Amino acid sequence: MEGEADNTGTAVILRVLRVSLHVGFAVLLAVALVRLAAGGIAGPGWITLLLALLLAAFYLMGTVLEKRHSLYRARFDPRPYSAWWLGGVCLLWLLLIRASADFVWLAFPLFFLQLHILRRRLALPAIALSTVLVITALWFHNGGTATQASAALQLPMVLGPAFGAAFAVVTGLAYRALFLEAENQRLAAEELRRTRAELARTQHDAGTLAERARLAREIHDTLAQGLSSIVLMGRAAEKALDDGDLNVARERFRIVKDTAAANLAEARNFVLALQSPDLAEGSLLAGLHRLCETTEAEAAAGGGGLSCRLDVEGVPVALPSAHEAALLRAAQASLANVRVHSRASNAVVTLSFLGTEVAMDIYDDGTGFDPAIEPARTDGSGYGLTALRERVAALHGHVDIESAPGDGTVVAIRLPLDVASRSAARPLESPRSLESRGSRE
To answer: Tell me: the pLDDT tens digits for 261-290?
Structure first.
């Protein structure tokens, strides 16, 4: 009463053997019933018929429960009760062979059941006892005399059941070996499915965490920085209104409007998973020029005197979109920190095209800090450097931060360019033309 294995070659052989066992039991029982009916059912014959029908129903119940569990593992598992089921079958069989010798041949399928369900140290004695009972029943129903005629029948009467039992043992052991192999295959397949499911779940969780980290970086480098600028400009405009300087207040509100419009464009592109509007409108160099101009304007609107410029070294080439986005976001986050925290007078963004890699350095002459002991802020504004490192690491690059209190800060970013990226690269505008167009000393 154990479940079937998966639909493999071994399982097909097992299924054929099991079906043959059940069909053989049914055929032998049917033959015995036909012979019982042919001899006339009267008196004790009705009891024998009822016992035979009860045996058929009890046997069928066990096989059906076993089949249901083998197909649907969540259903009732009859295996813990299989020994009791076998005991009931054997008890009914003993009562039947007491009533008629026609039922003794059911012993052969019972041999297989005993060897399959019971442990070997119990199965072999059970088979030997069943063989003795078969021989005894045949001797009893043949009159139990020792006449010359009956003596001639005694040898086949003993050898037949004995050879049948030996054949059942050999076949049953082979079946048992096949069954164990199939069961091991089933367990291994289930373990493989569980492992695959766990791997898929782990990959899903990792993907979810990676997506959360990406969203955090995007929000920090775009929406959070823009909203921070809006808050600062709003305060500056409010102060200008209190001082009665309407022109300054109007300029502050213009910057608030422009920043809010830029943030709205970032949000729409962010939702659609598109590139930054600064990149959509032109190259990385053009986006960095606009960023420097915006940083100067916002610093001036806040009452600061920050000067920001872009320097380009090497021959500019088109970069992969992921590299351009990472460099632009890095510059946005770094310059926002310069504008808000460093109290710097000058900031320089240096973009270098080095053939096998692209480098960007953001320098400021502000107050600086100690990178080793810089405490994390509790208001959520200290995520920029962490997000920057994660973004660059995703492109197999690295970030170095050089700073000390009173000595300013340099954020150095290096991104490697693979062979495909370098071969597809094309020259852009020359550094000189870019400097004449937008750089300021």
So the answer is: 777 777 776 665 545 555 555 678 988 998
Return all residues near 269 (Cβ < 8 A) that are at least 6 apart: 275, 276, 277, 280
What's the CATH fold of domain 283-441? Heat Shock Protein 90 (3.30.565)
Instruction: Render pLDDT for 119-144 as a digit per residue (tens, 0 to 9).
Output: 878 888 888 888 888 888 888 777 66
* 367 φ/ψ angles, rounded to the nearest 5 degrees: -75, -25
Domain spans of the chain? 9-199, 283-441
Instruction: Pull the structure tokens for residue 346.
Output: 């000058």
How many Cβ atoms from other residues are within 10 Å of residue 423's Cβ? 8
Enumerate residues 6+ apart whose C-beta is below 8 A from 346: 306, 307, 308, 364, 365
Secondary element (H or E) of residue 66: helix 44-71
* 22 in Cβ contact with 62 (< 8 Å): no
């035979």: which residue's tokens?
A: 52
**pLDDT at site 348:** 94
pTM, 2 dp = 0.44
C-beta separation of 437 from 285 below 8 A? no
Distance from C-alpha of 71 to C-alpha of 59, rounded to nearest angstrom = 19
**Do the strands 307-313 and 346-353 form a parallel or antiparallel pair, or are they unpaired?**
parallel
